[in-house]
Amino acid sequence: MKQKELKKLNNRGITLIALVITIIVLLILAGVSIAMLTGENGILTQAQNSKKETERANIIEQVRLDILEKQTEKEGENITSGELEEILKKYFSNEEENLKDIIAGTTEEGEETKLISKEDETIKIDLSEIYNGDIADGGTTPEGPQPTPEPEPGGSLETTDNGVIEIKWLKDDTYNVSETANAPIIKSDLPTNTTMKLVHYDGSGNVVDGADYEYKEGSGIADNTSSKWANAEVTIDNVKSYFVWIPRYAYRIIYFDTRYNKEAYLTNGNTEGIIGYSDSRGIVDKDGKKVDGVASTTSINVGDYFKVHPAFMDDSSNSYSNGGWNEELPGIWVGKYESSLVNKTNSGNIITDDRTTGNIIVDSTNNTDKAIAVQPNMRSWRNITTGNMYTSAKAYSTNLNSHMLKNSEWGAVAYLTESKYGRNGTEITINSSGDYITADAGISANPEQSSTGNETGIYDLRGGAYEYVASYYSGSTSSNLTDNGSQLVNETEKKYVTAYTGTNESTDYKPGDATYETKRWHDDGASFVSSNIPFFRRGGDYFDGSGAGLFNFSRGDGSGFSNFSFRVCLAVK
Fold it and tell me: How far apart (Å, rounded) are the C-alpha atoms in residues 103 and 96?
């Protein structure tokens, strides 16, 4: 063969080999691309998950609007089960009998207990996320004196919904029991643009300089026996905000088999019907034995098994897993109202009416003309992601260790409110403002909406807006965790956040966080965090009716919605 022809054959061989290699490389790249697009964590999968969460939120909001419209037609009266069923039929594909059972709370074992979306059957929603109000069926309550109710069927420690919280004050930052609550801490060494002072309220509910407080046992209703909690006014760049002092304490919970026996204990100390405790031993039965299937937590015993509330404890040795701080605290200051967003030049100019304006960060470099305000008769700050809430709350005042309220701190407020130093087992009245007005427009007009039954307490704890707290499920694989709350996840100072490592409320709750320990108290809603919905929210929305409350806990994806707000806390020592 001629040399020229042999060279042509060699070139063709090389070209074929190159072609084969190219095809192989392209196949490999195609496989990688397909995996990136369609895998468990692929782009398409994540986009689909995000779309579902949006669709889910839209369904909930639309159903709520339909229910509100129906209530408006009825001039504020509760809707009937039939009316609720007709609304649900528009959005959900459950069979008629199943819908009736879900509404009545009588679903049998094996029967579907969630509402199934007509648009996408993989989207399932708890009725409690849509409506927890009373149903009008059954007629009106008869007039005249009623007979004393018979005790309810016996309870168990797997349904700890009948309990009493008892409190012991602790002296300064120690574990020593005290007869009186710690005096509030007022910080004076502050920048020139910041002041902090004690205030109280006159007979008309006006703010007056000076101290007038008394943490005492009382009836829990709006009368002269009510406890008075200490209040402070913080002014930063001429914008005033108000905070309430929660003194350091230890607690224990006594569980009863019925509400009847719980009330008897509160009234005359009758101990009949005690079935167990939550204390320094964990949740135990009346003989002190651990309850199966419930986390066995322990804490420092300050006598009679009372345990120090974690919100006040040095938790650094535990990597802040209990929701504590980096030192022992004599108390904390908690925002008296849900947070609002205002212009500094005019703190009455509320600027959170739309989603675009609300979802911002306010700190020393961003939106410096705006500020957080904690005041009554304001629209709460909504339409903001959990991460932006967190950053803005932390930037409110570094000198006062400001931060977004954590689950443990919500629990510290809830337990003190439920005790004899607060409402003494009486549920606070709901803030039913559909415009999300803090304190429902006035503290004197609505004292029963506070944690004390008077102007000195904390407002908006039940109803108003849902409140996100700086607590989340760290094992979440959903993009919601980082898309909406990266600031919490990436926080290096872990005292400001609490990471939950599981999604089982009976084993993954934290003592004092007002979740499993007080589940369903006052019939409040209960829904623990999950992988796809990793952030805790508290209090309930104004629309939740009886399901809203101090002990309401639910979950959210962290995105900015028109009914989600937050609260600021100060750790001053």
Answer: 11
